[in-house]
Amino acid sequence: METWSDDRVREAVAARLPHHRAGSITRLGEGEDNVAFELDGELIVRFSKDPDPESRAARIDAEARLLHAVARISPVPVPEPLFADPGLGCLGYRRLPGTPLLGLPVPDPSAARLGTTVGELLAALHAGRMVSLVELDVQPGAAWLEEAAETYAAVAGQVPAAYRPRIEAFLAAPPPHDGYEPVFSHNDLGIEHVLVDPATLAVTGVIDWSDAALCDPAYDFGLLYRDLGPVALDSALRAYGEADGIRERAVFHARCSVLEDLAYGVAAYVDKSVAAFAWLFPG
Q1: Where do the H-state alpha helices sit in 128-192?
Q2: Which residues, 6+ apart, have CB-to-CB distance to 49 below 8 Å?
Q3: To which H or E segment does residue 12 belong?
Q4: CA 57 → CA 11, 74, 155, 253, distances in Å?
Q5: Burial profile 72-98: b = 16 or more Cβ within 10 angstroms, e = fewer
Q6: Helix (H, G, I), strand (E, B) or coil at 273
Q7: In sequence order, what are the residues at sequence separation of 6 or more whose Cβ sits closer than 8 angstroms to the Cβ of residue 177?
Q8: 14-17, long-range: CB within 8 Å, 24+ apart, which pairs?
Q9: Rounded to two decimals, what is the model's pTM?
Q10: Pfam families annotated for this entry (predicted)?
Q11: CA distances to 107, 140, 182, 252, 258 from 111, in Å
Q12: Separation between Cα atoms, residue 129 and residue 65, nearest integer Å
């Protein structure tokens, strides 16, 4: 099994940033694809867990090129690589200020401002020409609904009884029409990936672009609606310039994805999922 020691992190930084002397090293976390470290509170170094050297190198190179391209068009800060080492399978960038929005209380006025910022970001991304940098990630609404039904069967016991008939009615109804043109988007724009100033809730950055793809333009709006509710969605669509079908498909994606978040099982995700049932499945 691959291991990532402090010495390996220092080796990676020394190879690419010889003038940087790493002091404290904190392991930030590990997902299915990557493990991340913070150096001295200012530098993030992320290693790919892909065991195949060629595939790992290709992933690191592709992500570095994508982040540089996104930084040129995004109206909010994004991680921009200071170095990429395909051989070591790692990427380094300066830590963006702020804290993830997940778990912070968001009153309606702040939700409206956050929605406006996200709408402006999505307008810029969806107009971006990124066809050569990302893959297509689309599936018909019927497939989303089938996956949601399977997830619901696994988590129904965690759903408050009042919402179960409403969710079951949603799962039994036909999905929205699939007629849309895929666009470049973050493709995982939940509030865990939105950094904010905790005092003002102003957006300070958007992180984790590993799922970026050509996808349904409504998908990231759906995650915003799932996490922050109708006030945020309304503001986002006003800033974006509401297009045909986006609101309906955003609501659809929000309802499907909230079940996935509930199944994830982490307390912060479970709490926000249960809270969101009030606007996603109203009586």
Answers
A1: 141-155, 164-172
A2: 2, 30, 32, 33, 34, 35
A3: helix 6-16
A4: 17, 26, 38, 33
A5: eebebbbbebbbbbbebbbbbbebbeb
A6: helix
A7: 141, 245
A8: 15/85, 15/88, 16/82, 16/83, 16/85, 16/92, 17/82, 17/83, 17/92
A9: 0.93
A10: APH
A11: 6, 30, 27, 20, 18
A12: 13
Four-point Cα dihedral 78, 213, 237, 117, nearest 10? 0
Domains of the chain: 6-94 (3.30.200.20), 99-280 (3.90.1200.10)
Q: Report the amino acid identity of residue 191.
A: I
Q: What are phi and psi of 82, to 5 degrees?
A: -85, -30
Q: What are phi and psi of 215, to 5 degrees?
A: -145, -175
- 271 by DSSP, 3-state: which? helix
* pLDDT of res. 2: 59
Distance (Å, whole) CA 111 – CA 96? 21
pLDDT of residue 22: 75
Digitized pLDDT (tens) for each residue of the chain, 283 residues in all:
456 778 888 888 888 888 887 789 999 887 778 889 999 999 999 999 899 999 999 989 999 999 999 999 999 999 999 999 998 889 999 999 999 999 999 999 999 999 999 999 999 999 998 989 999 999 999 999 999 999 999 999 999 999 999 999 999 999 999 989 999 999 999 999 999 999 999 999 999 998 999 999 999 999 999 999 999 999 999 999 978 899 999 999 999 999 999 999 889 999 999 999 999 999 8
Collapsing DSSP to helix, strand or coil, 78 comes out as coil
Buried b / exposed e along 146-176 (16+ C-beta atoms within 10 A): eebbebbeebeeebeeebeebbeebbeeebb
Backbone angles phi, psi at 143, to 5 degrees: -70, -40
The answer to whether residues 76 and 125 touch, using CB atoms and an 8 Å cutoff, is: no
